[in-house]
User: Fold this.
Amino acid sequence: MEWNQSEVLALAMEKCVSCKGFGMRPSRNNTTTACNCVLRSIFRKCFDRFKTSMIRKESILSRPYLQHTSSPHGKLSWGRKDEEYAADFMLVVKRTLTPADYKIFNYHFILGADWRLCCRKMNIDKGLFFHSIYRITAKLGRTFAELEPYALYPLHEYFYGEQRSTQAKVVEIRKEQSLSAKVPLSKVA
Assistant:
């Protein structure tokens, strides 16, 4: 994924001291990259979708859906996107994190332990725990967005695929077609 400001502006925190709300910050090799606040926001969106795909009220398994594929064996296949997303999410987390970071992730995010219980269980202090959480969420956010060939973020592309085969075209409106040319503007007194 190539980071640009139009993709990260809506995800940036307004009061971030690194990017000042613009979502981009300079990197070490004189280029710009996404700020950590954007990466943590990407992680939160993916994690929220993971939680909703794991908590099913009506049944244990979701409905299978017929989806379009680019396989040489056929253009359609059946799949359970919620379960596939949950499995992909956990596999990416296990591959990306070190065993110590995965232990923190598992206690805090999967098992739902608060910071006091996590610090007591892993014998670390509060500052180290929260620095680890910030580092883990930024690392996973970057991985979810830059994963090749099928990234977990943006979510609509993961679940629904790319719908357009061509780029959107800019349509120019000629002066005689515009509504303002047909309707006279009255002067306000």
Remarks:
- The radius of gyration is 23 Å.
